[in-house]
Design goal:
heterodimer; A: alpha+beta; Cytochrome Bc1 Complex, Chain A, domain 1; B: alpha+beta; 2 domains; 5-stranded mixed sheet; 16 strands; 21% strand
């Protein structure tokens, strides 16, 4: 898929010529081991780098320049995947051939260099005003999670079953950590990111691969660095047999947000990973799945009732929006669907539908440049030579017995309900 | 006869044919794509609540939320759920109802013709019984309750309710838990017969598709069915004043930070075609210039902490109604309101926008449009919306290229008058008086 070029030790370019898109996409990813304090620093750092730089000292100047480049999109983000913290810089510009003037691509490349190597620094420090402003923004982003009741309930459920672990670690750190960080801390984090992180650079578009590779080599002059492979466990150690926890919390709201947390020993790196993906699909990943059919369609209890598989953490979640009075009935129905899987009550039709939709999902993801980059960046950890077809073949060979076996190792750990104050 | 139109500057070719039964079919092949995205859309949305049913002479007003309810019910047939059929053929299917449209769609990388047939057939073969209608009420009630707990949705809709006196755009698309109780199978058939005639619909196919083969396939499917003759649809809308219904409202919810939104009601909305395209593109440019990330407004309010990353602005327009919105989460709603009002007032008084800003934003918009053409979803949904308003999506770039400051000024004047402005805020429940 992508042509791989090692620019330096620990710095790799993945490049792909494609005539499919009218734009050229760039993504530069800095990866390091996940750590809560570092998450706060890197979230603020990402914001500061996006705001201004040595060439454009204010947001207005920088955004004007991007507007002039036919609305070139340029943004940063910080987040986590498995045990890794990833800061990414993404840019997308219209391919010159669709524009009445040339030179946009060259200018965007030069801007990317500026954002990375020439930040808005005076006397070896980031501008204090900018830092304080972006600290405020990140804190508000963290705080706003409370206002999205589905995301809030999911976060609470994870905190309860996996405290102090990567699975529940907040992507942008905590408000307290953000508050505590100084301009000097931030600059140290910037230097460490630039010089010590593993770096992956992605480019997709109608470009000349060799020509672009040379340009990147001369513009993005990263030093070589030793990179320790950070890998999540192949197999999740399962908690001892313990009682299922039942937690109910209240807020002033109307719907009951029911979140169930299950564990599975199978993670992203486990050989049974494709089998667990199919199992999740039959259970609750789609509109033909057992949860949708039985909780929504047959009982009319919910508008949404689905499961998702968090493969990096060996967890499976079920979410449903219900009338809080019907919690027990809903939980019984959900458990009954899992029991059905464990007893092998799986039809050929369910297997066929799930395989067809997973295949459609991965092939469709490759129809956007961002999808190509994100899917590749994740799957390359398993096999750098993977294709959509090799992944689909992995699903095709999964049998009903496999699903039954996978389901048998899925254990319910928690039933969490966030609901209105008037409900009991 | 199938026509084809080639857009040189975009390197795209669009195929179109209006079939004998009135269905307008568009096909846009995209090189390099493995998926095909197909939408089948009727010009019928939540605002179409008062009309003369097909074959009748008296006007009726149907229960609120019925267009959306009908969308849900189309998926259930005597032999089961349509999602099941799409799944077998690897298609991911969905539907949505807006103020003015109901769209049914799928995306598939395989078995394109099987899936296209499922789409055409399920939308053209209604099956409603009292039993299935009643069963759906529980599901939709949960959908409505889910939206009730979403502060951003409440903010958006609360603002629209403030803006309009009579126009049905102020009624929530899904209706209320109470209003959907009045929906019956008979009502659904009446709405279906009136609005789902092929002559009121557009089929759009984009992605990995052979246009000749696909057109022949669609024709064969449609020729095998019988439809009544096309008939004009008589809709009725109340007269709406230019002023807002309510100037200010507040709602308390369990949130951490207040949310503020300002709505600006648009005049001159009984338009379509080129006039509408010019007006909406111009309005969008004015908002970008006044409130976009490169604006003085953005810099000042962001620096002062009046807005945060949730800040957004938007312009919505359909035949008969339109509004601009500017809003953000904010600890200082009064100061933010003042800043927005001052920016609008200064623009009225001194018109600070020059060709410099216009040209920069024009470039930005052209780039944004080119980027959007990477998305089959954008093309199909937007093209259909444009067609229903007698506009052509592919006129966007040539129209942007010829816009003048006068166009921007005219568009700005359709929503700049204070009598058309309203504010809505959501405050944390524990801080509410």
């Amino acid at each position: 898929m992508f042509k791989k070029v090692e620019l330096q030790e620990g710095v790799t370019l993945y490049i792909r010529k494609s005539e499919q898109f009218k734009t050229v996409n760039f993504s530069i990813k800095w990866k390091t081991a996940l750590d809560e304090k570092k998450s706060a620093l890197r979230a603020v750092l990402a914001n500061v780098l996006e705001e201004s730089n040595g060439r454009y000292r204010s947001q207005t100047e920088f955004r004007n320049a991007l507007d002039e480049l036919y609305g070139t999109v340029l943004y940063t983000d910080a987040g986590k995947r498995g045990e890794t913290n990833i800061v990414s810089l993404s840019a997308e510009c219209v391919n010159d051939e669709y524009l009445s003037e040339g030179g946009v691509l060259e200018e965007v490349l030069s801007l990317i260099k500026t954002v990375i190597f020439d930040p808005n620094v005076v006397d070896g420090q980031f501008d204090e005003t900018v830092v304080n402003r972006e600290k405020r923004s990140v804190k508000e982003r963290i705080r706003s999670l409370y206002d999205d009741k589905t995301r809030f309930a999911q976060m609470r459920m994870l905190e309860l079953i996996r405290p102090d672990s990567a699975a529940s670690a907040p992507s942008y750190g905590t408000e307290k950590d953000v508050d505590a960080l100084t301009s000097a801390d931030l600059f140290a984090a910037y230097e460490s990111m630039l010089n010590e992180d593993e770096i992956d650079i992605y480019i997709v578009g109608d470009i000349d691969e060799d020509d672009m590779t040379e340009k990147i080599r001369s513009l993005l002059t990263f030093n070589s660095r030793k990179v320790n492979k950070r890998q999540t466990a192949t197999q999740q150690t399962m908690a001892q047999e313990t009682e299922v926890r039942h937690v109910r919390e209240k807020q002033d709201m109307k719907q009951g947000k029911l979140h169930l947390g299950f564990s599975t020993p199978v993670t992203f790196r486990h050989p049974d990973y494709p089998k667990m993906q199919i199992t999740n699909g039959v259970f609750g990943g789609f509109a033909h799945s057992k949860l949708f059919i039985n909780v929504r369609e047959k009982e009319s209890m919910a508008y949404y009732a689905s499961s998702s598989y968090s493969s990096h953490y060996g967890l499976l979640y079920v979410m449903a929006g219900i009338d809080a009075e019907l919690e027990e009935k809903a939980v019984n129905l959900i458990n009954a669907q899992l029991t059905a899987l464990q007893q092998g009550e799986i039809t050929d039709l369910e297997m066929e539908q799930t395989k067809a939709l997973l295949a459609n999902g991965i092939k469709s993801a490759f129809d956007s440049a961002r999808g190509q980059i994100e899917v590749f960046d994740q799957y390359k950890e398993l096999d750098e030579n993977f294709t959509a077809d090799t992944i689909i073949a992995g699903w095709e060979s999964v049998t009903k017995d496999d699903v039954k076996n996978m389901a048998s190792d899925i254990k319910l750990e928690i039933v969490y309900l966030l609901s209105g104050k008037e409900a009991n | 006869m199938m026509k084809n139109i080639h857009f040189d500057n975009l390197q795209e070719t669009l195929y179109n044919e209006k079939l004998d039964n009135g269905l307008d079919v568009y096909i846009l092949p995209k090189r390099g794509f493995s998926k095909t995205f197909v939408t089948f859309t009727t010009k019928y949305g939540s605002i179409d609540r008062t009309f003369i049913p097909r074959g009748k002479t008296e006007e009726v007003t149907v229960p609120d939320g019925i267009a959306h309810f009908l969308e849900h019910k189309m998926f259930e047939k005597e032999d089961g759920d349509v999602f099941q059929k799409f799944s077998v053929h690897g298609a991911s299917a969905n539907a949505f109802t807006s103020f003015t449209r109901t769209a049914y769609l799928f995306s598939a990388t395989d078995k394109l013709y099987d899936n296209t047939e499922i789409l055409l057939d399920f939308v053209q073969e209604p099956y409603f019984t009292e039993k299935t209608v009643d069963k759906e009420k529980g599901i939709i009630a949960q959908e409505i309750t889910m939206y009730d707990d979403q502060p951003d949705w409440r903010l958006y809709f609360g603002t629209i309710e403030n803006l309009f006196h009579e126009h049905p755009v102020k009624i929530d698309i899904a209706g209320t838990v109470a209003s959907i109780q009045d929906i019956t199978a008979d009502y659904l058939y009446e709405c279906y017969e009136t609005f789902y005639h092929p002559s009121n619909m557009v089929l759009f196919v984009v992605g990995a598709v052979d246009p000749e083969e696909m057109m022949a396939f669609i024709k064969k499917n449609q020729d095998a069915k019988t439809f009544e003759d096309p008939a004009d649809i008589i809709r009725s809308f109340p007269t709406e004043m230019d002023t807002v219904a309510i100037t200010e409202r507040k709602l308390a919810m369990d949130i951490s930070k207040p949310k503020f939104n300002m709505g600006m009601k648009c005049t001159n909305t009984d338009i379509d075609g080129e006039e509408m395209l010019i007006q909406e593109l111009s309005a969008g440019l004015v908002l970008d210039i006044l409130f976009g990330r490169s604006s003085d407004f953005y810099t000042e309010t962001y620096n002062d902490g009046l807005i945060d990353e949730s800040f957004s602005y938007d312009f919505t327009m359909e035949n008969g109604f339109g509004f601009a919105m500017v809003g953000s989460d904010t600890d200082q709603p009064e100061q933010l309101e003042k800043a927005i009002r001052t920016t609008v007032k200064n623009t009225v008084d001194t018109w600070p926008i020059t060709d410099l800003e216009l040209n920069r934003m024009r470039k930005k918009k052209i780039g944004q449009f080119m980027r959007s053409l990477n998305s089959p979803e954008f093309i199909a949904n937007q093209f259909t919306r444009y067609t229903f308003n007698n506009m052509n999506l592919f006129d966007v770039v040539p129209t942007l290229e010829k816009l003048t400051l006068e166009n921007l000024k005219d568009a700005f004047q359709t929503f700049s008058d204070e009598s058309g402005h309203t504010v809505y805020s959501i405050v944390p429940a524990d801080k509410a008086e």
